[in-house]
Every structure is written in C-alpha cells, then in structure tokens.
Amino acid sequence: MTLYREVLLGKTTEEILIFISSIDEDKLIVVEVIEVLIAHVKHLISKGLIPNDVGDKVLKVLSDLLKDNEVLFKIRAEDIHEAIEKYLRDVVGEDAGWIALGRSRNDHVATALRLKTRKLLLQYIDRLLRIRGLLLDKSCKYVETPLPLTTHLQLAQLSTVAHYLTYIEEMLREYTDMIFYVLCNVVNKSPLGAGAVAGTTVPLDRYELASILGFNDVVGNTLLATSSRDFI
Hints:
By secondary structure, the chain is mainly α. The chain has helices at residues 2-9, 14-20, 30-46, 52-67, 80-92, 105-141, 161-187, 206-212, 222-227; strands spanning 146-151, 154-160, 189-190, 217-218.
C-alpha cells in the first residue's frame, strides 16, 4: 500500500513505516507468498492474459527468490508483498506491473496463510503418526507387565502397561482424525481469485488456480475467502 500512498501523498516517513510495517513478521510466510505469486503468474500465462516472455521473466525472478529471499528484507517496504513488487520492478522493469492483473493482496495473503497452515498441519499429523507408532511398538513389549490403575485418587484395578500406552495412542488417534478433518474440509480451500472482497472482472479460473497450489476446492464466497482467519 505504501507504493499507492506515495503517489498521492509523497514518501512515508521512516517512523511511520516502522510503526505500520509487518515485514519482520512476514518472514513466516514469505515462501508461501512467493508460491502464490508463481501460481498467479502461471495462470495468467496459461489464459493468455499476459505475454509469455513477460511471464517467463517474472517467473524466473520469483523462482530465484524461492531459493534465496534474504534480499527482500533489505528493501524499505510496508510488508512482504510490497517488497516483492519493488524487487520485481527493479529487476524486471515496468513489465513487473503485469502481476497486478486480477490480483489483490487480500486474496493473496489469505491464500498464503492457508498454504502455511496446511504445511504446519501436515507436519503435526506426521509427528502424531510417529508418536503413535512408537506407543504401539512399546505396548507390544509390555502386554503382560502389570500396572495398577486409579480412580478418584485411589487404587482401583490392575491392568497392564500396554493397556495404558494404547489408551494414549487412541487419544492421539482422535486428535489426528480431528486435525485431518480440519485440514481437508476447512483449510485446504483456495481463496485465490476472490479479489479484494467481491471477485475480479479479469477472467480467472479459480478452480484451476486452486489446482496449481494443490487445494482440493475453493472458498466459494469471496468475502469469506478474503476475510476469514478462523482456520488458523
């Protein structure tokens, strides 16, 4: 947004920029922001909405940034989106302006957040599966090892260590199922192409955009797509 304000109001003072900037926090989602931009540019090329040579130049720069994005955090910018825009403008020139076609930071940051959340949930599921596997392996070794169980702070019944370990495993299985449900039915839906809040007149195919990024569906209502954060 700083780029637009500068056109109307002039340069933002350093104090104000530091106050409003989210550039440090954006380090958490910089990879996902770049991935979303790559998908957007690929889609624009496939639909014939931007010249192929321009799209290829932009994709080359974005692909390089995926490997090393440190340069972005040396740029005076309000957020990572603006830093990328400035960097592209410096490297590619005026052709970098094509990336704005059919794009809003609203749907792009919402998509980046869902990508990041999806990655984290997959990591959690992987860890849970590993822990559950260890618990089951251990339980096999302690099938006949006695373990007194309590209820109401008193000794109640005699069981086994295996019984206790499989109790924890089953509890973690329920957690795994809940996370997997949220991942598949809530998080893994694409907001991309929803525009600022009410879509775009640019003929984007939201389902194709979703497919490029590995989403299994789109968030149908564009207002929900750009404004919701309850999946985090």
